[in-house]
Amino acid sequence: MRTKIARPLAALVLAAATVAAVHSPAFADTTTTLSFSAHQDDDLLFMNPDIASDVEAGYNVWVTYLTAGEIPCESHDPCGMDYADSRVQGERAAYAETAGVPNSWTYEEMWFGGHPVAVNHLDGTNVHLVFTYIHAAAGPEDNCGDLFRMLHDDSYEARPIDYRPAYTKDSFVGMLRSIIDYVQPDYLRTQSTLGHRERRGDGVADNVDHVAGAILAADADVDGAGNTWIRRDEYQGYVITDYPDNVGGYWRDRKQQIWNAYKPFDYQISPWSWDNVMGKQYRPEGRIFWPGIPWVPPGDFNAC
């Protein structure tokens, strides 16, 4: 799937001076989790209620958004940075709802792998949101997006829409690895690296950004031998709309409440969009990569 830091914060995102990293990544006795989400809403739709449970438990919760989640201006309005910025506002509202605190955030520009990255910290909590602003795939103008292009062309330079320095595949994976190094998570979450094979009954496979982002994050989570470094769990995407509900009671209600907090900020969805996944979350046991398990990217993810 594919959000506004409030307007003053958007200006900071575009033109902020470097700020020293003053937020400790974790407390030694507190569980820390790091989730990689392609767009601003994939975490809410496909990784909840697991992330929400982390927040309620008081864990150190980091979520990194691998694209800007924007849409092209040729065929949409709002679009570009305005739309991406609005969706960031939605994520902030959603996590304030999750944590049960006022929607008050501190912005910080942090450096990972030599790249400046926009980070939002939810005041009074252990919740941190990282925004890369990489150009997202969105048809009909661009069905591929920069994650797919980096994945398939080592020389391609992806230029974030917030005008921060460009990435190649190696430097983007290096930046993600630096986030992992800094956060020191107990485990990671990504979307499905096999989403291109996971088709709904109507033939629709997962979003190209979901798959490409998951593969790039998995590439960052390996040791020198190519084996998984930190446990990584994969979460399925569009295909779960065909699956039976497996989340009920309190957590279904909380997932809906959190999603409802996001909705008003995303002008491309209706008031009932994606309500059909509020009772679902699928993390296949066979897609949990424990430390030491070899990581081999799928060889058939070749088309967008």
From TrEMBL:
InterPro entries: GlcNAc_PI_deacetylase-related, LmbE-like_dom_sf. Keywords: Signal, Zinc. Residues 1-28 form the signal peptide. GO terms for biological process: glycoside metabolic process. It holds the Pfam family PIG-L. This is GlcNAc-PI de-N-acetylase. It comes from Amycolatopsis rifamycinica.
